[in-house]
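Hi C.,

You asked whether I'd gotten around to modeling the 246-residue construct. I have! Everything is below, sequence then structure, no commentary in between.
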Amino acid sequence: MDLLNTIDTTKLPKHVAIIMDGNGRWAKQQGLLRALGHESGTKSVKTTIEACAKLGIEFLTLYAFSTENWNRPKLEVETLMKLLIRSLKKELSTLQENNIKLNAIGNLEKLPKSAQKELQDVIHKTKNNTRLTLTLALSYGAREEIVNAVRNISNKVKNNIISLDSIDDSIINEHLYTQNLPDVDLLIRTSGEHRISNFLLWQIAYAELYFTEILWPDFKEQDLYEAIVSYQKRERRFGKTSEQIK
């Protein structure tokens, strides 16, 4: 059955975030090097981006490289950085054709200079696109993001730029990497793991969580639709009762 026909386009999640997990395990199952798992995973990235754009989802955030990933073997890290650069060069035309804007969050200064340059180039060239905002979380860690926000807010309080009493959710949002993004509605994680792994901890406060056993390189368009159908069957109460929602 084509799940696309069962999706209610009036009740789409505005912001979908994905923890793309399982590249290494997929490669191991195939008897391949881990690097080839990451390479194969880029096909699922492209498929997912295009499917989200086709559906009309406005924001898609992909967990591409965490702060903890820097601790992986040097060869794997180097391969991932080269893959990032190659993918950005290769997919620029696709982003433009599909009216997709590229965004990036994380401690981007830790990326190799060549990756920073390519990233900023694609961000600049797609800045006026409006169909979908694609955010890559690179060298990203939610705890580091929150610590940075606390430091910046504290510094502003110290220098009388903002008052202590004025600190609320909106002030904190303004100091996060995601200041220009809405909260996450649907968080998807592949590969059967049931954890958040330091991803968008503030932004997923009321997100619906969807876990699938599928390894990321095997994640197809229909798998995304299945996650969205699951999302649409849920009642999002935001602390209220069912009766209040109705």
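If it helps when you're writing up: Residues 42 and 87 are 8 Å apart (CA to CA).

Thanks,
B.
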